[in-house]
């Protein structure tokens, strides 16, 4: 399978994200990853698939590299690594300029919005994230 289409998601840092040490609390990174992954899904999936599927996080593995502060301009770049059955595996890199602040590997389960049971995505939906001829960023 070819590389997936990357998705850049601008992160808004709220004063409530700041902890007692003056930088972003670790829990806020999870919120950002969830927002970025769901934004990626809504941007590339067809409207019908967005309306009939939900996503729940199964696992997050976060490597923190540098602290993040209130006035930082932060971008989360999302890459869908693969889809297996009802599961999707993502890599999200959170940056301030060239500085990597955190790297996150996460797995998600796709649910049927009506039954709330795991649901496989149709091949034509998955292909929107891995277009033929797209071999990644230049």
From TrEMBL:
SUPFAM superfamilies in the record: Thioesterase/thiol ester dehydrase-isomerase (SSF54637)
Superkingdom of origin organism: Bacteria
GO MF term (any one): fatty acyl-CoA hydrolase activity
Xref: PANTHER family: 4-HYDROXYBENZOYL-COA THIOESTERASE FAMILY MEMBER, NOVEL THIOESTERASE SUPERFAMILY DOMAIN AND SAPOSIN A-TYPE DOMAIN CONTAINING PROTEIN (0610012H03RIK)
Signal peptide: none
Entry similarity comment: Belongs to the 4-hydroxybenzoyl-CoA thioesterase family.
Keywords: Hydrolase
Protein's name in the database: Thioesterase
Keyword Hydrolase applies: yes
């Amino acid at each position: 399978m070819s590389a997936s289409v990357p998705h850049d998601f601008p992160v808004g840092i709220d004063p409530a994200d700041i902890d007692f040490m003056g930088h972003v609390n670790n829990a806020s990174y999870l919120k950002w990853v969830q927002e970025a992954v769901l934004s990626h899904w809504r941007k590339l999936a067809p409207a019908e698939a967005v309306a009939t599927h939900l996503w729940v996080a199964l696992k997050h593995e976060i490597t923190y590299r540098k602290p993040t502060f209130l006035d930082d301009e932060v971008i989360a770049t999302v890459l869908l690594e693969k889809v297996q059955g009802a599961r999707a595996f993502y890599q999200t890199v959170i940056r301030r300029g060239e500085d990597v602040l955190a790297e996150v590997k996460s797995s998600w389960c796709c649910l049927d919005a009506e039954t709330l049971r795991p649901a496989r995505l149709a091949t034509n939906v998955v292909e929107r994230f891995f277009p033929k001829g797209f071999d990644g960023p230049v």
